[in-house]
Amino acid sequence: EVDARVVQPRVVSLLPSATEMLCAIGGEHLMVGRSHEDDFPSTIVDRPVLTASNMPSGMTSAEIDAEVSSAGREGRELYRVLGPELRRLRPTHVLTQDLCKVCSVSPTDVFAAIEGMNPEPVVLSFNPFTLDAVLEDMNRLGVALGLAHEAAEATNKLRDRVRQVSTVLTGTRPSVAFLEWVDPVFVGGHWTPELVELAGGTHIIGVKSKKSFRVAREEITTADPDFVVLAPCGLTLEETLREAQRERNGWLRSLRAVREGRAACVDGNAMFNRPGPRLVDALSWLSSWMRGEVTEVTSSFPCAAWPSEEVVKRPRDIEDFGDLHAAAVSRGELFYKDPETSYQVSTELCMLRRGWCCGSGCRHCPYGHFNLSHRPRENKITESRLLGVGKTCAQGSGPLVVWTGPNVVVRPGSVVCVVFGGAYGAISDGTPVPTVMDWALREKVELLLVPREDFPAALRLVQPRAWIVDETACDGRDEWVQKASSVCRL
């Protein structure tokens, strides 16, 4: 076995949750390779990718289930290890799992990939079923890599956060349905029922410390829970929203929690289904969400309201809702009740506090439905907004570039300023604002959208390091404003 006290470990992580544990205990600098699914923290994505999926992309949940079942019957692996690439990195430690054959590469493939290596790397397998086991795995990893002290500090802080959540528990426990898959229906197992209980709820079906399992839809509808969380294993928030929409007019829509606005879609790829330190983030969110509190955690958590037609889609006749919304905003309220459906609707104050467009088409989205990609954007921006791509708040700290058309040259981290007019198109070239949004999403750049009449005040939203018009740098803010005004014909 490699002595981490003598040789600095070279760690290959083939498991996203193990990667997050490694980074949480201060071992990111030891990581030399990763799996194709590793995406957090973002600072590790430059490591060589050492696994690949054998499954087609873009499938629905039903199609994924069919493919998984077929692979099981035929003895096919869902993932593969890129053995030669792994061996070239000469790892001392390989992190993997034997908990779920659907989630990542199999131990058999891992041992086949390292066979014959000299010295042979240490294989650490993580198979937790409870939150406490996850924290113990972090300590075990720390001991193996010579980071025992750092691991103990990290896990103690996480345990303190768990205790803080537990201290706010009061009153009756609401019933919760945690759906780990939607077609067919699987309810969350392993640590999920435990998280529900710690957050103050009661999981209607799932069993603590047992695997997730399939249930009939009738079991969910009969239980008719107070809250519903849809967090399919391995699916992003956008993919989860699409799945919820496919089921929208079927059995899910009959659930009381969905009808009354107590249902949420969650990025199951990042939260709840990765047994790592962010399970505590998921616990904090669940506790606050069920109590109706807006906190720092709930504002930044990768979730969205259930895309029910009545709750989410902006109706054609909006005047009455506009009055209700304006009254709620004037009172500083984050929600109001739809008088026709009794659904709880988020105000723009709630979404501004979150800081980004969730992409589900919220009725009063102040970000112009920027991240909405699965149907036309209906909301228009009426005042200057700084827009971030995906689930992150825009920072406004990069080079500021004025929009001159789709061929504008942008640098990494750029903020593109688009001044638009009454026709909701860019003043510089007439490109419709939704088209500019599509371009920004493809290019992964932030947008500063500015109504023409608001241009003098809009620059308060950014603190750029450089001021750029086209490819010509400016000496400072005043020169940038002069050149930008010329380009935008202001």
Short description:
With 490 residues, the chain is an alpha/beta fold. Helices cover 34% and strands 15% of the residues. The chain has helices at residues 16-24, 61-74, 83-88, 107-114, 131-144, 148-166, 192-198, 217-223, 237-246, 256-259, 278-290, 296-300, 309-312, 319-330, 348-354, 433-443, 455-458, 477-487, and strands at residues 11-13, 31-33, 51-53, 79-81, 93-96, 122-125, 175-182, 185-187, 202-203, 213-214, 227-230, 263-266, 303-305, 335-337, 344-346, 385-387, 400-402, 415-420, 446-451, 467-469, 472-473.
Protein architecture, described:
This is Fe/B12 periplasmic-binding domain-containing protein. It holds the Pfam family DUF5522. It is a single chain. With 490 residues, the protein is α/β, with parallel strands linked by helices. It has four domains: 147 residues, Nitrogenase molybdenum iron protein domain (Rossmann fold, 3-Layer(aba) Sandwich); 135 residues, 3-Layer(aba) Sandwich (Rossmann fold), CATH 3.40.50.1980; 75 residues, no CATH class; 97 residues, no CATH class. Helices cover 34% and strands 15% of the residues. It contains 18 helices and 21 strands. The protein is globular, with a radius of gyration of 25 Å. About 2% of the residues have low confidence.
